[in-house]
Design brief:
Elements: E1 2-5, H1 10-21, E2 29-32, H2 43-48, E3 56-58, E4 64-66, H3 68-78, H4 89-117, H5 131-151, H6 165-179, H7 189-199
Parallel strand pairs: 1-2
Antiparallel strand pairs: 1-3, 3-4
Helix pairs in contact: 1-3, 1-6, 4-5, 4-6
């Protein structure tokens, strides 16, 4: 397998975490795509992912998978033991539901704030900005953190009684929030405890 990525970016981190959790990190060739230099906009990369974003997974038979949730779903299934995405239909549905809420309300909300309401990655990359939208999504991110805090009042992980893709997405979201200088609200003690708990997992060493 090959993973086209920009190491340290939030979505590539999600894929790295999933690979590490499944014991597959050493089975992958990681290929750096220099987003800052515009390499994601070249015809060669756009042929692999017309959306022009990383990460992209290329299988040995030439199959291309983009979108982080799709890649992590594949990674979880390829080993035959679906602990990250759920084993039963109900568990899968719950995990997918929470994962998507975290993806939109935290990771993507922080991204919108960073790319629209700050200098982001600079004028060569940020070709369109809407500060009002970015600041609105900043509020969504804080609201989502408080919602997560309520969930974590009842359990140690976001979507099940064990670590799942929902937690992986949240890890990436909070790392992005740190970079964008969005602090976890003081009244979110459960979130802070969750973060300390998941940060101790060995897979975290491969996220950045």
């Amino acid at each position: 397998m090959k993973v086209y990525e920009y190491k340290g970016f939030p979505n590539p981190a999600r894929v790295r975490l999933a690979l590490a959790e499944k014991g597959l990190i050493d089975d992958v060739e990681f290929i750096h795509v220099d987003v800052m230099a515009g390499e994601h906009r070249t015809p060669e990369f756009l042929a692999k992912n017309p959306s022009g974003v990383v990460p992209v997974l290329e299988l040995d038979d030439g199959t291309i998978l983009s979108e982080s949730a799709a890649i992590t779903d594949y990674v979880d299934h390829v080993t035959g033991d679906q602990d990250l995405t759920g084993k039963t239909a109900t568990e899968r549905g719950k995990i997918h539901m929470i994962q998507r809420k975290v993806e939109d309300g935290l990771l993507e909300a922080v991204g919108a704030y960073f790319h629209h309401a700050t200098d982001g990655l600079g004028p060569d990359i940020e070709t369109y900005q809407n500060a009002d939208w970015g600041n609105f999504r900043h509020g969504v991110a804080l609201k989502t953190m408080r919602w997560m805090n309520e969930i974590l009042e009842e359990r140690d992980y976001l979507a099940a009684d064990h670590f799942t893709v929902a937690d992986i997405t949240a890890v990436a979201g909070f790392a992005f929030a740190d970079f964008a200088k969005i602090e976890i609200p003081e009244d979110c003690a459960n979130v802070k405890a969750w973060r300390e708990r998941v940060s101790a997992r060995p897979s975290m060493a491969h996220a950045v």
